[in-house]
Amino acid sequence: MAGPVQSIERAAAILRLLAGGPRRLGLGEVAASLGLAKGTAHGILRTLQHVDFVEQDAATGKYQLGAALLHLGTSYLDVNELRSRSLNWADALAARSGEAVRLGTPLEGSVLVVHHVFRPDDTFQTLDVGSLLPLHASSLGKVLLAFGTASVEPAQGRGLEAYTRHTLVDPERLARALAEVRELGWAAEIQEMSMGEAGIAAPIRGHGGLVVGAIGLSGPIERICDSQGHPRPSLVTLLREAARAISRDLGAARW
Fold first, then answer.
1. How far apart are CA 250 and CA 212, in angstroms?
2. Which residues pair with 219 in a beta bridge?
3. How far apart are the two ends of the chain, measured CA to CA in Å?
């Protein structure tokens, strides 16, 4: 039986690397992260760029996932029941709250963003569909961790990554935060993944009340939080109403 094709393995590793970060990566960063020679990494990136799986920023020369790859991902996501039943509610939540809405499910120790509704204004925004977010540093991830839909144990084996000085990397502090999420019924991230950014999320439940995903609002901290740095109660209320509505559509009993 033929073994794996090394070039395809390397191409897949590059795509995973680009999907796993919140920013574009340069050639040197890609090569160093994967232990590849720059020439090898550049050749694979050029091939991926040729088929539109990767795009290169003209100004910086850095790389990000391309439109063709996102289209392939969307063709899978379109058949995902969670996403399809959430579309209308997510659109309505963005319109009512004035903030960006993201829907997440667990994937390989991260949060996969399966739907993203832009904030309804004219500001520049980047589509997050297909992005992977850290479980411990995102409000979507905290919901999945708190209700047992995902586990942070694999990450703890190599230590939790600190994205900012506010990221919860101590297991005991994270455990206390997750207990609070279960008590409140929603989670928050305040500058834990990116300085100046905040988010809140609530669980989406399916049959039997099991948490199958999370829906969240995200944006600049001054929009999501009040002057005391606490999530605005009005946004929390809108978010939880949307989460309950989606859950009912998925067959969860009222709670």
1. 10
2. 198
3. 53
Closest CA to 101 of 110, 109, 92: 92
Q: What is the pLDDT of residues 8-65, one digit of tens each?
A: 889 988 988 887 765 688 999 899 988 999 999 999 999 998 888 888 988 889 998 8
- Give the total residue count for the chain: 255
Q: Is 227 helix (H, G, I), strand (E, B) or coil?
A: coil
Q: What CA–CA distance (Å, rounded) separates 161 from 138?
A: 12
At residue 104's C-alpha, the angle toward residues 8 and 139, to 5°, is 120
Q: Distance (Å, rounded) from C-alpha 143 to C-alpha 146?
A: 5
| pLDDT tens readout for residues 169-201 | 999 999 999 999 999 999 999 999 999 999 999
Q: How far apart are CA 123 and CA 12, in angstroms?
A: 33
Q: Which two tokens stand for residue 107?
A: 């994937």
